[in-house]
Amino acid sequence: MSYFDWSEITGLFSYYNLVLLLQGLGITLALSAFGCLIGFLAGFVLAVTMSTKAAILSPLRSVVHVYLFIFRRIPFLVTLFLVFFISQYSGLRFSTFTVALISVCIIAAAYLGEIIRSGLESVHHNQWEAAVTLNFSYLQTLRYVIIPQSLTVVIAPTFSFFVMYIKDTTLASQIGVMELTSASKILSDKGYSATLVYAVVLMLYFIVSYPLSRLGKRLERKIATARHH
Q1: Which of 9, 18, 103, 200 is 20 to 30 A from 50 (CA-CA)?
Q2: SS3 labels along 154-214
Q3: Model's pTM, two decimal places?
């Protein structure tokens, strides 16, 4: 095709093709947003569990440590196929979207759990001791003392992880999830220029990812500024 073949360019942006691309983008955003939100909540629980010192929770801390160690080192695609085959052989037969969502949550919880744990541990132990002196409970210590001070450490890598995972959800196409990459493949198979199609996909990923990265940096600066006033 000539790069100035306007008929093909206008054809690519027809109503049904735009709907297909937007549906793919919607699935990509849903996987990223819900997966990382659930993963963040689960990761917070894992991080808090790791930060406790109670002897009775020692076996649970060991389990959490193994979980964080393993799933931060297994590629997303391997986790994706592992969940897919378990769902098939167990008879549960989750939808491909559910499989992808569970996989995202598993990996997100491991990565974000480690990020949050590092943030909690970055707060000087004197702050914990001061909270004990004030008769704060463990949860009160976390809420009023530790979490506010750990935010500057947690926010930047958390948003970086979100942006990374928006891109990594392209691997969900390997099990048939109709996300943005799958939609672009369909358009290429219909005869549209692969260069043009993937240029559009690149722009869509950029439109989503860039504002998120900027938001993360802005929040980090605001929190850092607030702490110094």
Answers
A1: 103
A2: HHHHHHHHHHHHHHHHHHHHHHCCCCHHHHHHHHHHCCCCHHHHHHHHHHHHHHHHHHHHH
A3: 0.84
